[in-house]
């Protein structure tokens, strides 16, 4: 025995109806949102961090530049500095030690005081005292102007200010400079980044946690499916809807949310965007209550509805003309099958009779039976020859055999004749009407030994006439007004389709179907008459 494959226990409901596309686990919604959020933080965080770092670095640089200028101005006004530059030997000897103590108090990297020739009087490195100060502008202070600059000095790259030192008479004696090395600025910048990094990581963690929560919520809302699976299932459902012959509408709360191309063609809304209000004038069938008929754009349609859950109703629209055509084809097929069965039964009986006669040696009787049967069929062929339409003639020949099976005498009026050509649809309608009316007449007349059915198919100056008479009991008075309503029949339940189809086809052709009781040849007859108007009645 073939082994059964195991079925996963957690299969999405949609996967039991549609083969969904395969999606690798790496590409599921959760990892996608997680990686997307992480990538967004990194892609956006790094440039933002660069901009923030640049701003913080610039701010720190400006802060130290302002501090350098402020402290340099303070040093330039100190009395010991002015006295040392004015020529006081004692103050000059103690000035370097004083500035180094002052440097420690300010937290600066160096405090330099020079004369007018930019030769140092003070420096953190005693070996540099007496040497010329390096880097930058050494002319502005001689004009009484202060400058702040970033230069490469003996201690390294630094931010410093040069402020002129003036005496009481306003003469420039030298300059005072307080500097901060850039490594110190870099340390401050890194400290700021270290302080801000935990907050950045916290925000990243919260964003990732939120992404995972959203992913779980989205997965739940999407019925446990991936986006590609939903798209694949939707494409397959769309393919099914678009290839149906019937129009399909899905309505909820008076609005149409789904409409396939066939429904758009029937309703005349090829480009309308959904949702749409339920079409005015179109009845909304009660779900499960059976189909209803309506007219849309001059075309009769058949509507049926079914509940779809969550307040949705699925409505199917079928072209009533097509439904009737299919019903006609089914009726024709059933009629031909019945005629073939009757012919088979009739010929089987004849063959059994011939076999018995030959077995008994009654060859003369067997030949007489064969000649009689041949003559009868020849008479039938001659009778239907004037109809000039093969399908209608074949139908009448089959009805002759059916009548013989039921013990009814079927006669085709000698006046029966049709033109060689008929308008489109008339021949089909005539076949449908003749088949149903003759079959009903044979059933109604069968039983008595003298049962008889007469048929006339001919044209007159007003058009085409089909008349079927039978010697049956006639139409019950209670059914006379509703005989052509589908499901109404004197033969019991499950009948009442044939006459309804004939009446519908007669209405489509502009024909008239009537019935009455007449007396002729000393007998009472039930007569059904179909009058079909023709553009030009032909003989």
From TrEMBL:
The chain crosses the membrane at residues 33-52, 197-215. It catalyses: ATP + protein L-histidine = ADP + protein N-phospho-L-histidine. SUPFAM superfamilies: ATPase domain of HSP90 chaperone/DNA topoisomerase II/histidine kinase, Sensory domain-like, Sporulation response regulatory protein Spo0B. SMART domains: HATPase_c. InterPro entries: HATPase_C_sf, HATPase_dom, His_kinase_dom, sCache_3, Sensor-like_sf, Sig_transdc_His_kin-like_C, Sig_transdc_His_kin_SpoOB, TCS_sensor_his_kinase. One of its GO terms (molecular function) is kinase activity. Coiled coil: none annotated. It is found in: Cell membrane. Pfam families: HATPase_c, sCache_3_2. It is a multi-pass membrane protein. This is histidine kinase.
């Amino acid at each position: 025995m073939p082994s059964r494959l195991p079925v996963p226990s957690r299969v999405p409901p949609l996967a039991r109806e549609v083969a969904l596309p395969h999606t690798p686990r790496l590409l599921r919604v959760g990892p996608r949102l997680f990686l997307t959020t992480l990538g967004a933080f990194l892609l956006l965080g790094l440039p933002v961090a660069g901009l923030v770092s640049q701003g913080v670095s610039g701010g720190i640089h400006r802060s130290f530049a302002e501090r350098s200028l402020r402290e340099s101005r303070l040093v330039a006004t100190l009395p010991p500095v002015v006295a040392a530059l004015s020529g006081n030997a004692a103050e000059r000897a103690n000035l370097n030690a004083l500035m180094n103590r002052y440097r420690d108090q300010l937290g600066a990297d160096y405090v330099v005081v020079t004369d007018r020739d930019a030769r140092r009087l003070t420096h953190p490195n005693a070996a540099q005292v007496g040497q010329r100060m390096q880097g930058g502008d050494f002319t502005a202070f001689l004009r009484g102007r202060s400058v702040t600059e970033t230069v490469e000095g003996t201690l390294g790259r630094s931010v410093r200010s040069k402020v002129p030192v003036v005496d009481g008479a306003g003469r420039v004696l030298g300059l005072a400079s307080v500097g901060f090395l850039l490594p110190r600025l870099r340390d401050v910048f890194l400290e700021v980044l270290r302080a801000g990094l935990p907050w950045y990581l916290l925000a990243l963690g919260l964003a990732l946690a939120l992404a995972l929560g959203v992913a779980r919520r989205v997965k739940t809302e999407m019925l446990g499916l991936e986006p590609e699976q939903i798209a694949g299932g939707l494409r397959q459902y769309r393919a099914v809807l678009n290839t149906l012959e019937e129009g399909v509408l899905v309505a909820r709360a008076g609005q149409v949310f789904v409409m396939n191309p066939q429904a758009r063609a029937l309703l005349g809304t090829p480009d309308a965007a959904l949702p749409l209000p339920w079409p005015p004038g179109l009845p909304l069938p009660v779900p499960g209550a059976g189909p209803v008929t309506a007219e849309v754009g001059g075309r009769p349609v058949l509507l049926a509805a079914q509940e779809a859950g969550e307040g949705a109703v699925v409505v199917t629209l079928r072209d009533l003309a097509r439904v009737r055509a299919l019903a006609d084809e089914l009726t024709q097929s059933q009629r031909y099958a019945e005629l073939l069965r009757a012919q088979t039964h009739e010929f089987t009986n004849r063959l059994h009779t011939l076999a018995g006669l030959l077995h008994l040696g009654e060859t003369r009787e067997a030949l007489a039976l064969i000649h009689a049967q041949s003559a009868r069929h020849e008479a039938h062929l001659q009778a239907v020859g004037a109809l000039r339409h093969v399908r209608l003639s074949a139908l009448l020949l089959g009805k002759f055999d059916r009548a013989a099976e039921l013990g009814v005498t079927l006669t085709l009026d000698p006046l029966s004749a049709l033109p060689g050509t008929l308008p489109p649809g008339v021949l089909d309608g005539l076949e449908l009407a003749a088949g149903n009316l003759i079959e009903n007449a044979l059933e109604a007349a069968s039983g008595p030994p003298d049962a008889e059915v007469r048929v006339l198919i001919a044209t007159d100056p007003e058009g085409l006439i089909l008349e079927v008479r039978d010697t049956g009991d006639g139409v019950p008075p209670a059914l006379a007004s509703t005989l052509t309503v589908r499901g109404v029949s004197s033969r019991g339940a499950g009948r009442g389709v044939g006459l309804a189809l004939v009446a519908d086809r007669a209405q489509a052709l502009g024909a008239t179907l009537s019935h009455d009781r007449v007396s002729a040849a000393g007998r009472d007859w039930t007569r059904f008459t179909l009058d079909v108007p023709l553009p030009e009645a032909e003989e």
